[in-house]
Amino acid sequence: MKKVKEILWLHVGIVLLSMGVYFFKIPNGFSTGGVTGIGTILGALSPISSGVWIWILNIGLLLVGFLFLGRATGLKTVYCSMAYSALIYVFEYFVPLENPLSDQPLLELVYAMLLTSIGSAMIFNAGASSGGTDIAALILKKYVKIDVGKALLCVDFVVAASAFVVFDIKTGLFSLLGLFAKAFIVDGVIESLNTCKYFIVITTKPQEISQFIMTALHHGVTTGKAVGEYTHEERTMIHTVCKRAEAVRLRERIREIDPKAFTIITTSSEIIGRGFRGV
């Protein structure tokens, strides 16, 4: 079941990423960095379409990745890179676009950033990436002692700034805006997808609550003794984590079992371990 869900996330992410690039980024000339930004610039400067340029660039980077990184490039990354490049080419063939879908560039930038960011986040969440500059980052990280994040941000900034020259000032400004928005949106979506709830329950009925967590929610429980300094009464403190969708069930069940339980619920952006994400 977990494998099926991962494959589904991967393919939905590829489709969203491809739609954001083809239907919103390329027609408007939004060059927000990365392979898609370079492909958009080259597509405007040559008779070769942006979709083909994206395919060529991704293939080139994958070959360089295998040369310098070997299997570290990852089969999932190879698949995602080729699949999303191919899908953009399919869109070009069956749904040719000569102009943007609307006359509202800001609206189109919002959709471009949302679709590509959500798509990228879903692909990352499935343990893969769309290739491109991610491969360049891995190579830099392995061979050069520089801050890879800053280096790639500089490259993306140059690509986005190229829109001022290749297209016009308005497109350049939108491209820079999209570049800065992209980083925040991707991180936000990834955190949202991985959000879990951490429960600390101080109770006099630890057995019933622990049993529910282990049998109904299939999560582990850690317990320990706790003494209140005000009352000097001894209680049991239960620690557990669960998925966001399970949190409401657990909260209601705790209330049913022990209405006087003291419960602290905090949000965690990621839980690594059995039953959640692998290391």
Overview of this protein structure:
By secondary structure, the chain is of the alpha+beta class. The chain has two domains: 2-193, no CATH class; 196-268, Alpha-Beta Plaits (2-Layer Sandwich), CATH 3.30.70. The chain is built from ten helices and four strands, in the order ααααααααβαββαβ. The protein has helices at 2-28, 34-45, 50-69, 75-94, 105-125, 133-143, 148-166, 169-193, 206-215, 244-257; strands spanning 196-203, 222-227, 234-243, 262-268. Strands 2-3-1-4 form a four-stranded antiparallel sheet. A hairpin with a 6-residue loop joins strand 2 and strand 3. Helix 3 packs antiparallel against helix 4 and helix 5 runs parallel beside helix 8. The chain is elongated, with a radius of gyration of 24 Å. The chain starts with a helix and ends in an 11-residue tail after the last strand. The mean pLDDT is 83.
Strand order of the largest sheet: 2-3-1-4
Please report which band the strand proportion falls in: under 5%, 5-15%, 15-25%, 25-35%, 35-45% or over 45%.
5-15%
How many structural domains does the protein architecture include?
2
For this structure, the quaternary state is single chain
Q: What's the overall average pLDDT, rounded?
A: 83
The residue ranges in which pLDDT falls below 50 over 5 or more consecutive positions are: none
Number of extended strands: 4
Helix content: 55-70%
Order of helices and strands: HHHHHHHHEHEEHE
Tell me the major beta sheet: 4 strands, antiparallel
| Silhouette | elongated
Radius of gyration: 24 Å
Count of DSSP H/I helices: 10
Give the end-to-end Cα distance, rounded to a whole number of Å.
19 Å
Which structural class do you get from the secondary structure elements? alpha+beta
